[in-house]
């Protein structure tokens, strides 16, 4: 089964960290973030 997401962030720079923090509180958003370091993904 395919999983759809509203947006994908690549890297854990300041912009994506801010977006992750802000989007965490919005239950309707399905977000996915990737980083080269597995413990950040």
Automatic annotation (TrEMBL):
InterPro entries in the record: FAD/NAD-bd_sf (IPR036188), Lys/Orn_oxygenase (IPR025700)
As one GO molecular function, the record gives: L-lysine 6-monooxygenase (NADPH) activity
Q: Which cofactor does it need?
A: FAD
Q: Quote the Gene3D superfamilies the UniProt record gives.
A: FAD/NAD(P)-binding domain
Which keywords describe this protein according to UniProt?
A: FAD, Flavoprotein, Monooxygenase, NADP, Oxidoreductase
**Record bears the keyword Oxidoreductase:** yes
In which pathway is this protein known to take part?
Siderophore biosynthesis
EC number(s) of the enzyme? Answer: 1.14.13.59
Q: Family membership, please give it.
A: Belongs to the lysine N(6)-hydroxylase/L-ornithine N(5)-oxygenase family.
Which protein, by its recorded name, is this? Answer: L-lysine 6-monooxygenase (Lysine N(6)-hydroxylase)
The organism named in the record is Escherichia coli
């Amino acid at each position: 089964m395919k999983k759809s997401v509203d947006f994908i962030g690549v890297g854990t720079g300041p912009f994506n960290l801010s977006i992750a923090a802000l989007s965490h509180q919005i239950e309707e958003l399905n977000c996915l973030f990737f980083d080269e370091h597995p413990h950040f993904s």
